[in-house]
Design a protein that fits this description.
Chains A, B: This is glycine--tRNA ligase. Chains A, B: Homodimer. Chains A, B: One of its GO terms (cellular component) is mitochondrion. 2 copies of one chain form a homodimer. The first copy, chain A, contains 15 helices and 19 strands. The first copy, chain A, is α+β, with helices and mostly antiparallel strands. The first copy, chain A, has 3 domains: 182 residues, 2-Layer Sandwich (BirA Bifunctional Protein, domain 2), CATH 3.30.930.10; 81 residues, Signal recognition particle alu RNA binding heterodimer, srp9/1, CATH 3.30.720; 128 residues, Anticodon-binding domain (Rossmann fold, 3-Layer(aba) Sandwich). In chain A, a hairpin with a 2-residue loop joins strand 13 and strand 14. In chain A, helix 7 crosses helix 8. At the A-B interface, loops of A face loops of B.
Chain lengths: 448, 448
């Protein structure tokens, strides 16, 4: 890239580093308060030798990462209590090494027994578990596996993988790492810019401090053009070095320093006075630790597809996807029983109502039997089907049928109620069972 | 990239081509029906020599594209009527060439006078205009400029740019191109895979057809291993070529064909019979045309920032952003008047209500005057501020103040109503004026 097209370009292997290098700005954005978390979603790139297994092993993949920055001594999450009682399949490093199987444990127990290093890590494990449940992953096929000591990344002090079982066995879909202060301290070291946070101390720390008063004229006379560098070297001595300087001058009348590879000898006459004192400080800087849940979006989607793919009991040719409305590509398919012109106004009125309720829909008015079109909707994972039939034309107020995909049951209801009923089902204000109870099962002329 | 890391990798300059090469699949997804549109959002890459001007000229930028496929003779959009009466600033190619200024025209007039080539293009121009209005772009600084004939891309038959005026003058933010059938026909030519749609003909087309019966033994004897290629060449002759073959054989007793660069002479004995007939066809294939609105997301955002940045009349130091709630990073800031412990339960109850209504919020409980914290919220473009003050503690039921950013006006209302009132303002069920009328202006102890 570049004007000469000769500069090599690099693609990031994770989104995390963008957050770390912006740490100062993010801290400022949070009013300089700890703890806080930053999130990012975007493509990352790895040079896979042989990309394969669908969305599982790609050179370019979508990642989402949360970097939760905390004080190293305060690894507590205030909302941990909301997930503490979730029981899930944990496969600790020691259970793996002892050839045991994963065991079902509550997060509270796992933290108490120090199976999971701290409750922030455990909090995110719990939240991911709830997230997977919400989008429709089969929780029987989810486990959380701790990294063995030898497989843990060099920067991490505890690592867990959320593994989901599907066509390719157990696959890591979300990673949880306590990266400690590795990233912030490494960036600070390499860039010279301190990526630190500050804490107020309740009891001040007492630190040793010193002042060195030089005879600059004497140094200048002796070392000429090197003097300036010698001044700044002597002024930036640590407390230990200052003690060494004083001791050496007192005992040997000389002290050697190395500046830019050259050795200079400082003698008594060059130093007027060294004084030592104590100082109380109320603010202390520290490198925050970071807890990082890292999501492979493609892998989660792939697992969701695998777990959602079903076959109708009565006919193994009929595949369907049991997507929850929140993940289904289309919420509702609208079907006129035939291509009769008279159905059109009803279709129009229904889709306008659906659009106003932000319910996504597709009209399927192809020349195919209603059963075939139900099957096609099922195959696309569409949760609901509305059918406009001949009774719609004669009923007053007009009624249509609503079919639920999982049960294939139908009810008959007024056109004006349809969008609200679907909305309530999506928002889980009502269950399908309750709707059936209210409207009664419909087994009319429209056969599925 | 690749196992040897020696394969060059290429980055796409637009997202569009991914849609074109998937045309067949998309058509199938739409039940083989035309017209339809596909959309995509993602990063595109251009090797800018000198990236500059904020988000305006980047090497990596976010793009969103709609590819609307239509029959070349049916460039009509059924929803055009919804935008036909919008009047906007059009700067046609001829007005530019004649040194005129842009003129305000309705889309209906522009289509009628053929200033805009067709009503699908005009439909999208109208929709983009409404979109920009919705997110808060100043429409006085928006114009639609037609490309001059010499600047039009080679593939396009009409092009318009939506230009937005800001710090860097008029900048192209959305492009509208009628790309005709350029992309689909080029991909078909290069790949050999036909990216076409089919139309039913009401009146059948009559086409000439022919059949050639070869003496394969005679050809085989003469041409040996080349025979197979000669067979397939002769069998795929067009109708015109078949006529030429028959005429030549009849008149000259020979016909020359070129296969893979070699010339072969076909003589009478090799062809048993050529018969010609007519056939009625009811289906015709065609290359769909495509209308493409293409959005530079970074440029739109940059313009939005520029148009939203305001200064308070009474104090030019006080900058604020007039983001509409649908684009504001945070909808609501929640402010305890001071750090008193007693305010906490109210803050908790308020943020829970906001979260339940999906209203994003931030609690700002730093040690700063309430006026400073209002100013900080304004600077971040936060539309609403809720303040918990001493009256909250004593009122029963508890009340808080709600401040609207644009007017800096406040009202006082019950905690239990706060989330619904904000929700109604976001959804534009009520205007702030109406809310003020209902609750009356509050000018209490909390000064801004």
């Amino acid at each position: 890239i570049g004007p000469t097209a000769c500069l090599p370009g690099f693609l990031r292997p994770e989104t995390a580093q963008g957050i770390f290098v912006n740490f100062k700005r993010l801290l400022e954005f949070n009013n300089n308060r700890m703890p806080f978390a930053a999130t990012q979603i975007g493509f990352s790139f790895r040079n896979e030798i042989s990309p394969r297994s669908g969305l599982l092993r790609c050179r370019e993949f979508l990642m989402a990462e949360i970097e939760h920055f905390i004080h190293p001594a305060k690894k507590f999450h205030p909302k941990f209590k909301n997930v503490a009682n979730i029981a899930l399949k944990l496969f600790s490093a020691s259970d793996q090494l002892n050839n045991l199987t994963p065991c079902i444990t509550t997060l509270q127990t796992a933290v108490d027994k120090q199976i999971i290093a701290n409750n922030v890590l455990a909090y995110y494990i719990g939240r991911v578990y709830l997230f997977l449940q919400k989008i429709g992953i089969d929780l029987e096929r989810v486990r959380f596996r701790q990294h063995l000591p030898q497989e843990m990344a060099h920067y991490a002090c505890d690592c867990w993988d959320c593994e989901i079982h599907a066509y390719h066995g157990w696959v890591e879909c979300v990673g949880f790492a306590d990266r400690a202060c590795y990233d912030l301290s490494q960036h600070s070291k390499e860039s010279g810019s301190k990526l630190v946070a500050y804490e107020q101390l309740l009891k001040p720390d007492v630190i040793q401090t010193h002042e060195i008063i030089l005879d600059k004229a004497a140094i200048g006379k002796q070392f000429g053009s090197d003097s300036k560098q010698i001044f700044s070297h002597l002024e930036s001595l640590s407390n230990e070095q200052a003690i060494e300087l004083e001791t050496n001058l007192k005992n040997n009348n000389e002290f050697h320093i190395t500046v830019d590879g050259k050795i200079f000898t400082i003698i008594n006459q060059m130093v007027k006075k060294v004084t030592f004192s104590k100082k109380e400080v109320f603010v202390k800087e520290y490198f925050p630790h970071v807890i990082e849940p890292s999501f492979g979006i493609g892998r989660i989607l792939y697992s969701l597809l695998a777990h959602s793919c079903m076959v109708r009991e009565q006919d193994e040719q009929r595949i369907w996807f049991k997507f929850d409305p929140i993940v289904a590509p289309t919420t509702c398919v609208v079907l006129p029983l035939s291509n009769k012109e008279e159905f059109q106004p009803y279709i129009q009125s229904i889709v306008e109502k659906l659009a106003r309720h932000n319910i996504s829909y597709k009209v399927d008015d192809l020349n195919a039997s209603i059963g075939k079109r139900y099957a096609r909707g099922d195959e696309l994972g569409t949760p609901f089907a509305i059918t406009v039939d001949f009774d719609t034309l004669t009923s007053d107020p007009a009624t249509v049928t609503l079919r639920e995909r999982n049960t294939t049951e139908q009810i008959r209801l007024q056109v004006q109620d349809i969008a609200q009923v679907i909305k309530d089902l999506i928002d889980q204000n009502h269950k399908w069972m309750e709707i059936v109870e209210k409207y009664k099962l419909f087994k009319g002329q429209v056969s599925s």
